[in-house]
Amino acid sequence: MENVKVVSHPVIAHSLTVLRDINTEAAAFRRHADSVAHILLQHATFDLSLRETTVTTPLAETKGYDIADTVIAVPILRAGLAMLPAVQQLIPNVRVGFIGLERDEATAVAHQYYNKIPGDLAEQRVMVIDPMLATGGTMDDTIRAAKSKGADNIVIVCIVSSPEGVERITSNHSDVTIYTAALDEKLDHRKYIVPGLGDFGDRYFDTL
Question: Is 202 a catalytic residue?
Answer without folding.
Answer: yes
